[in-house]
Amino acid sequence: MSELRISFCDKVYKIVKQIPRGKVATYGQIAKISGKERAARAVGACMRNNPDIPKTPCHRVVAADGKLTGYSAGDGVETKWEMLEEEGVIFKGDKVDLKVSLWESK
DNA sequence: CGTATGACTAGCT
DNA sequence: CAGCTAGCCATAC
Length: 106
Hints:
The chain is mostly helical. It has a single domain (3-100), classed as Winged helix-like DNA-binding domain superfamily/Winged helix DNA-binding domain (Arc Repressor Mutant, subunit A), CATH 1.10.10. Helices cover 39% and strands 8% of the residues. The protein contains 5 helices and 4 strands. The strands form 2 sheets. The chain has a two-stranded parallel sheet. Strands 3-4 form a two-stranded antiparallel sheet. The longest helix is centred in the C-terminal third of the chain and has 11 residues, at 77-87. The radius of gyration is 13 Å and the shape is globular. The protein starts with 7 loop residues before the first helix and ends in a 5-residue tail after the last helix. It binds a DNA duplex through helix 2, helix 3 and strand 2.
């Protein structure tokens, strides 16, 4: 109903807020749930402006490979990295272990 | 309304 | 395995 008037970004924020602690989601995953699997760029385009931190746990959003990208808050990916690790996310080298930390939307 | 930009992804070299 | 190119989408100016 009212979701027909919200912007693509607002929908993305809502999805990101649904990500459980200790898990991460990829931009493509969120984009797909939003209705546009190829809108991964649009997702980041909205987050880049830091809309509502810490209301939106955008630090739980990583690249398709599990690599951390951007982050306009804190010290950048550096802070993002610490937050994820602090929440229980498992890291594999310089990336997140999507095999165990990838959020599965149902 | 048209152009430029950006926290992406997949494919190729 | 690493680096570069092209394609796609929404927002901001």
